[in-house]
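Issue: ligand-bound run for PMV - logging full I/O for the record.

Environment: standard queue, default settings, no custom constraints.

Inputs:
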Amino acid sequence: MNDVAILGCGHAPGKVILFGEHAVVYNRPALAVPVTQVGVEAIVERSAAGSGLIIDAEELRERVVLRDAPADQPLAAAARLTVAQLGLTEPDWRVVVRSTIPIASGMGSGAAVSTAIVRALVEAANSEYCKGMMSVHDASIDTQHAIRNTRYVLTPAEISALVYEVEKLHHGTPSGIDNTVIAYGQPVYFVRGRPPQPFAVGRPFTLVIADTGIRSPTRITVGEVRRCWAQEPARFEVLFDRVAAVVEAARVAIAVGEPEKLGLLMNENHALLQEMEVSCPELDALVAVARAAGALGAKLSGGGRGGNMIALVTAETAPQVAEALVAADAVRVIITEVR
Ligand code: PMV
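Outputs:
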């Protein structure tokens, strides 16, 4: 058996946008929550001297050799930005990335991969470069451990800002919501350019998330909305304002513990997304199936034209809604509680 030295490990969850996608690009608010049933794990191993930094991402079928990778390669960019921010020279490390988040499906795969890589590199820097820093020989093992491991620290805000730079490579004008909800790992009320506000959930509620199986890069749908907005700015500004009103109402309903009110708001938000032409027959079909099976409301989530939809359910209706979505050809169904 090969003895591989593991230097660090980083994790990141997936996410869904509850309300406000697309309008959020135009400075309206949005609500998003982490989804921990899916996620990314990045592990850093020491590799041969002189090999440089290599990233192996199995699900993405990518092997990235940092010194050869172009500037716009997202995995390389995440690693380069982290190495620079920590003030390191390129280390001889291999980063193995494994993900259960579907790609281009509105669940934040890109931001989660970047976040996990950043976290793993920070942890590896601490274990690789902080040995021997202890001069207090009589400190307890715990204290030594704590001192050794806190030399390199990136706050959630710093990680989010770094991942945002990588998100720009995925699509030119990201709002920043994906990197924010994933780096902070908690429900956020988000307005572009403002510090994120974590929001309180007055009473937990349950969502069913179902995947159409259609991969739909966010760059394309964001570009389409931009084209439509440029053609009909007044109409789209009104649509975005109506989305903003839905988001504000949803935020209040969640905070005061009236999640059942979210159902109608989800339906309203979905109708507005249809008007923006970012839904598709497969998403509309899953939304209709979920409602018919007893969901209180349902909508697409994320960029649209494929990817995932979400449905608001109760503990009682969750199984029947999930079954109906599977029967309607959803390729994957997740039941998650927002708390
Ligand atoms: O990455 P996705 O597919 O969850 O979409 C992100 C949400 C958009 O509002 C469509 C784009 C953005 O940058 O906020």
